[in-house]
Specification:
29% strand; two-stranded antiparallel sheet; Inorganic Pyrophosphatase; 203 residues; single chain
Length: 203
């Protein structure tokens, strides 16, 4: 019996073992860590590649979209240079929020996402950008090419969620949302994160 190509004898690490995407930086793979149905914050364990429980969601707001990261990206020097006010990159893969018309209620899935914009966010002085994308070939979002094509209420929900999802009662916030940026700048951020990854980990 011959195995199909490509074939992985063992599960690949979602950060280092998956491909960036079919047409990066515009169309990328997104590895989904949490869904709009999750009351817990999950994130990939960097050592094993399995999902780890990070914390319960601290506020009453749920994630307004699918949320995860782009494989083989890394937020370091080049990402920091695109983030005015940041002292450094956050040392994580680049985060991505993906809009989908049909509910996807499970995580640890891979999907094709088309980049349309992003959120310039700084967390404890670190560049912590959130790329905004739409599910490729989505029946409703398929014609959305730019962040301005998204209803303002959806952008407000994303902005509010990321501004508050680490809030602790009685403690000052260390997160600031600097601005929402367009597709052109988002593509530069994605490419910078790809180049940062290649420099640190190799192609």
């Amino acid at each position: 019996m011959s195995f199909p190509k490509p074939f992985y004898r063992w599960r690949p690490h979602p950060w280092h073992g998956l491909e960036i995407g079919p047409a990066a930086p515009q169309i990328v793979h997104a590895f989904i860590e949490i869904t709009p149905f999750d009351l817990m914050k999950y994130e990939v364990d960097k050592a094993t590649g399995y999902l780890r429980v990070d914390r319960p969601q601290r506020t009453s707001s749920l994630p307004p979209s699918l949320y995860g990261f782009i494989p083989r990206t890394y937020c370091a020097t080049r990402v920091k240079e695109l983030s005015s006010g940041a002292a450094r990159g956050d040392g994580d893969p680049l985060d991505i929020s993906v809009l989908s018309e049909r509910p996807i209620n499970r995580s640890e899935v891979i999907l094709n996402a088309r980049v349309i914009g992003g959120i310039h966010m700084i967390d404890h002085g670190e560049a912590d950008d959130k790329i905004i994308a739409v599910l490729e070939n989505d029946n409703v979002w398929t014609n959305v090419k730019e962040i301005d094509d998204v209803a303002p209420v959806i952008i407000q929900r994303l902005r509010h969620y990321f501004a508050t999802y680490k809030t602790m009662p009685g403690e000052p916030s260390h997160v600031s949302i600097e601005r929402i940026y367009n597709c052109e700048h988002a593509l530069k951020v994605v490419q910078a994160a790809i180049d940062d990854y290649d420099e640190v980990f190799g192609k």
